[in-house]
Design a protein that fits this description.
about 120 residues; mainly alpha; 6 helices; 3 strands; about 10% strand; elongated
């Protein structure tokens, strides 16, 4: 593989790995709905269950996965846990992530075409 392409891809690997983890976690429709709800405003688990018409245990299960994956963060407010989007997710620009993936693909296609042409 061409050195500039290798360097480009290795520099982007941590960002791409993070994005892949986020996409895995949000690949489930229920978790995606929870994430979108938490992105609007901090919210407690019982309100999530009510808004999404889900059981408390199902919401708790998905919240745990999203917290462990560092997609959501939680803080205690009295007896309730309040969930919000993690800083890492809030700062992630989806457009920038897509542009990075497209740029990487174009680099690979260019390298493949150059290899075929030689």
């Amino acid at each position: 593989m061409n050195a500039p392409i290798t360097c480009f891809l290795s520099c982007q690997m941590s960002a791409l790995s993070e994005l892949a983890q986020i996409l895995r976690l949000t690949g489930d429709p229920t978790r995606l709905r929870i994430l979108l709800l938490c992105a609007q405003a901090p919210i407690c688990a019982s309100d999530i269950a009510t808004c999404l018409l889900l059981t408390q245990s199902l919401v708790s299960h998905h919240l745990r996965l999203l917290r462990v994956g560092r997609v959501l963060r939680a803080h205690r407010q009295g007896k309730q846990m309040i969930y919000s989007v993690a800083v890492i997710i809030a700062s992630l620009s989806f457009t920038a992530a897509v542009q990075t993936l497209v740029a990487a693909r174009l680099e690979l296609q260019t390298a493949a075409q150059a290899t075929v042409a030689s």
